[in-house]
Amino acid sequence: MGKKKHQKGETNTSEFPSSSNSIESGNVYTSPPFKFIVEGTAFYLHAALVSHYSKPLDRMMNGEMSEAQKGYATLADIEEGTFGRFAEWVNKGFYTPGEVFTYPLDESGSERSRLEKCMVEDSETEKPVEAIVEVPQTAELVEFEDDLEFWATRKRSRKSKPDKIVDSWGQKSSSRSQLKESFIHRKATVRQESINIPPPLPNQSPEEDYTDVFLSHAQLYVFAEKYDIQTLKILALENLQTTLAIFTLYQGRTGDIVTLLRYVYSNTSKPSDDAEDLRTLLRDYVGYEMDTLMKDDEFRDLMIADGGALLGDFLTMVMKRISD
After folding, report:
1. How is residue 41 annotated by DSSP?
2. Which of 275, 279, 290, 295 is nearest to 320 (CA)?
3. Which of 34, 40, 37 lies closest to 90 in space, CA to CA?
4. What is the rounded (10 degree) CA torsion for 248, 163, 312, 264?
5. How far is it, in rounded angstroms, from Cα 29 to Cα 37?
6. What SS3 state is found at 89?
7. What strands lie across the sheet with 41-46, from one edge to the other?
8. What is the reported pTM?
9. In sequence order, which ranges of 73-138 are alpha helices (DSSP H)?
10. What pLDDT, in 10s, does the model give residues 238-272?
11. What is the pLDDT of residues 55-74, one digit of tens each?
């Protein structure tokens, strides 16, 4: 089916990454270009500039590796778009995220039927009634539900005041709001240092597919983590957070988030400490959007198929919501 794509926001092209102020421009522009080949496309970047940001890439270009001897490197595990964004960031101080695709409703096909159905669901006013969400049963879930029932019973027995209105999970409405506010108002560091990074624009309808936008940030984060480019890694994380914070999760767009979760949990590992990373960011996002996500069969299947990491993070947020 045809897609109509468009960009959201314009970019300024006048700035190097903020930390590049320590690089002498003469060294940058007089250094020989080094060729990187990604998916058959050749990228020529100033060696001194790349070396400044990445020690692994510096060793590749200037060390004892075969790439240094040949004068070029073929990166087989990187997509062309991801490396192109890295090249853009190295030279401009920002990168252009993936494109938003729009699926016109006047086209025929299964996507139209699915979107029409979801648009009806999204337009309906939700009533304040409790609903039961069935989750595929596993040993972990059965044990968790037993613990959940115990703590919920204990908590109710200690209350003297009537409970507040609850959502479909049986949690206080204020709990979700608090998690959402905390997510939205996370303090940025790298984004604040650059005046040239435009703010993302919010989606307007379930016709807008943000999958490529989300993945462009996540893939760049994974690339930056592999090649130890800390400033870019933080920027990609902050860009994803900023986009998710203003993204309206229509029921018809839960697939965008499921695709993002599948990529992240397949290409990252659990953090060794409490530092914020890509997984903790998405864990917190799922924490306040779990009611909508749990209506998606793909999301529920992914929690089980993932092997436990996503399910564990999900249950952590469930406990956080009921304990507040």
Report:
1. E
2. 290
3. 34
4. 10
5. 21
6. helix
7. 41-46, 33-38, 72-74
8. 0.74
9. 80-92, 110-123
10. 999 999 999 999 999 999 999 999 999 999 988 77
11. 999 999 999 999 999 999 99
